[in-house]
């Protein structure tokens, strides 16, 4: 299969959720819009797309056919895609959905009796912990990653830079699919493209990436 390279924007709120999914070896059925970007390199975390608002129901069908996949297969969608019908399907199958976006879907989850975790869409460790907690139970849950689409959000006041003296050329930052990071020896961040999300700094074990 010819898998295209990522076309993800700098500052995309799906980057950290997909990085957290990769750490946990999770795969997803995506909904509409940008959630399908997880099928591209470097994340390769989306195995199919169901269309706008249809990811929870598609997950329910997949888990009905293969119940042992509950710990490795989730739904991935925009927070605005969640609705009572989708949450009812999630509740019935006991699955986990990762919802990304602004606003909140907590009240909707509460009414649907679906567990709810909330974290920043730009915090890989927090998302990973929330996913672990959601998957450790046996009932339905939504992990809500709060973060606005980079194309609509105001640009953050800070940008990030790589200190070449600390960089070990491991390539971890390059595997986030951020178009602001380029080059190899060492990589460099283009300040004109960087949206200041800070996700790349979280994967650098050498503390080489800091605010400029
Ligand atoms: S993650 Fe850090 S050490 Fe690795 S290539 Fe990027 S800046 Fe260098
Ligand atoms: S902080 Fe890092 S991951 Fe975020 S936009 Fe800038 S270069 Fe890309």
Describe the structure.
With 212 residues, the protein is of the alpha/beta class. It has 2 domains: 15-146, Thiamin diphosphate (ThDP)-binding fold, Pyr/PP domains (Rossmann fold, 3-Layer(aba) Sandwich); 160-211, Alpha-Beta Plaits, CATH 3.30.70.20. It has 6 helices and 10 strands. The strands form 3 sheets. It has a 6-stranded parallel sheet with strand order 2-1-3-4-6-5, with helices on both faces. Strands 7-10 form a two-stranded antiparallel ribbon. A two-stranded antiparallel sheet has the order 8-9. Strand 8 (181-182) and strand 9 form a beta hairpin. Helix 1 crosses helix 5 (124-136) and helix 2 (55-65) packs parallel to helix 3 (84-93). The relative contact order is 0.17. The model has no long low-confidence stretch (mean pLDDT 93). The protein binds iron/sulfur cluster (2 copies). One iron/sulfur cluster is lined by residues 10-11, 160, 176, 178, 180-181, 189, 194-200.
Layout of strands and helices, then pairs:
Layout: H1 15-23, E1 27-30, E2 46-49, H2 55-65, E3 73-78, H3 84-93, E4 96-101, H4 106-111, E5 115-120, H5 124-136, E6 141-146, E7 160-162, E8 181-182, E9 188-189, H6 199-203, E10 209-211
Parallel strand pairs: 1-2, 1-3, 3-4, 4-6, 5-6
Antiparallel strand pairs: 7-10, 8-9
Helix pairs in contact: 1-5, 2-3
The structure holds iron/sulfur cluster (SF4) (2 copies).
């Amino acid at each position: 299969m010819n898998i295209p390279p990522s076309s993800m924007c700098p500052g995309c709120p799906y980057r950290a959720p997909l990085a957290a999914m990769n750490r946990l070896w999770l795969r997803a059925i995506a909904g509409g819009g940008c959630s399908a970007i997880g099928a591209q390199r470097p994340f390769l975390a989306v195995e199919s797309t169901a269309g706008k608002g249809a990811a929870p129901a598609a997950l329910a069908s997949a888990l009905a056919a293969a119940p042992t996949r509950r710990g490795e297969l989730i739904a991935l969608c925009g927070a605005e895609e969640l609705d009572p019908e989708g949450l009812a399907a999630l509740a019935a199958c006991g699955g986990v959905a990762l919802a990304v976006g602004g606003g909140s879907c907590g009240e909707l989850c509460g009414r649907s009796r679906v567990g709810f975790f909330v974290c920043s869409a730009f915090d890989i460790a927090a998302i990973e912990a929330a996913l672990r907690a959601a998957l450790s139970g046996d009932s339905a849950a939504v992990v809500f990653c709060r973060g606005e689409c980079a194309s609509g959000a105001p640009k953050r006041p800070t940008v990030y830079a790589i200190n070449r003296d600390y960089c070990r050329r491991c390539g971890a930052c390059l595997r986030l699919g951020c178009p602001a990071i380029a080059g190899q020896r060492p990589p460099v961040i283009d300040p004109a493209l960087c949206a200041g999300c800070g996700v790349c700094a979280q994967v650098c074990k050498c503390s080489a990436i800091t605010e400029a």
